[in-house]
Amino acid sequence: MEAARDQLESAQLIAKQSKELAEEGTIPQSMYEEAQARADQAQKQFNQTSDQGGISSTAVAESEAQVEQAEQAVAETESAVEQAELGLEQAQIQLANAQEQRENEAVIAPKSGEVASVEFSEGDNVSNQQPFATIVRLNPMTITASVTDQQLSLFEKGKELEVEVSTLEETVTATIDYVPSVPNDTNLYPVEATVNNDEEAIKPGMMASFLLPETVVEDTLIVPTDAVVQQGTESYVYQLVEDEVERIDIEVVEAQSDRTAIRGDLTSGAEVVTSGQLTLTDGAKVEVMKEDD
């Protein structure tokens, strides 16, 4: 009798658990109904046994079989729940990936400007190691000039200079915003200036020229800039005296692109060496090569 009661309680517990899972939507309603039917059958058999005052071995076997079937149904239900949870997790991962891909459809430029070129076409694979597009910012416009070491002193950061744009046949005011301390691979100094370009009339690739202010100096001599040799704090030129050269120490007063104003014990109208000075020494003999007519 006690065994029958235990089987009945087990069947009823399984039916109760199946009902809760069915209400949550975890298992189908049919699985709960099947477990409840087994519990009802176990109750019926238990009642019959109680009325008869005992239970036969056949009834016990049938009850045990029903309980075993109910337990198997619960195990199948739990397996179905695990599969459903796994499927839900995979679906959430797919949803997150889809949302991320949708967000990546929008390409946001770090700066405003005009799209000059797009490097990829529809369907191409794009990585963050390659530029997707080129954006040109036309305002303000940057003007770059490569100058020599002798011209570098003419440019000062923050200084305003007039710039002539040949294509537009007009001048604009530019502000020097970068003066390098070291030359580039061509041994020139890339000076940069910015100019207001509200109307975007100035385009990339146009030629421009800096208009440097004229400087008037008095009591100086003007020599070719190529003739001036500078070594550390010393400046000098080589003056040609017959077939020899004489070193003349000088003071550089003002340096321009092709002419330099100097002071020193240099004879007015004297010939100076403009090429190969670094191979000369004071008093060295030279031969002047005349150009062919």
From TrEMBL:
<feature type="region of interest" description="Disordered">
    <location>
        <begin position="1"/>
        <end position="64"/>
    </location>
</feature>
<dbReference type="InterPro" id="IPR058637">
    <property type="entry name" value="YknX-like_C"/>
</dbReference>
<feature type="domain" description="YknX-like C-terminal permuted SH3-like">
    <location>
        <begin position="222"/>
        <end position="288"/>
    </location>
</feature>
<dbReference type="InterPro" id="IPR058792">
    <property type="entry name" value="Beta-barrel_RND_2"/>
</dbReference>
<feature type="compositionally biased region" description="Polar residues">
    <location>
        <begin position="42"/>
        <end position="55"/>
    </location>
</feature>
<protein>
    <submittedName>
        <fullName>Efflux RND transporter periplasmic adaptor subunit</fullName>
    </submittedName>
</protein>
<feature type="domain" description="CusB-like beta-barrel">
    <location>
        <begin position="143"/>
        <end position="210"/>
    </location>
</feature>
<dbReference type="Pfam" id="PF25989">
    <property type="entry name" value="YknX_C"/>
</dbReference>
<dbReference type="InterPro" id="IPR006143">
    <property type="entry name" value="RND_pump_MFP"/>
</dbReference>
<comment type="similarity">
    <text>Belongs to the membrane fusion protein (MFP) (TC 8.A.1) family.</text>
</comment>
<dbReference type="Pfam" id="PF25954">
    <property type="entry name" value="Beta-barrel_RND_2"/>
</dbReference>
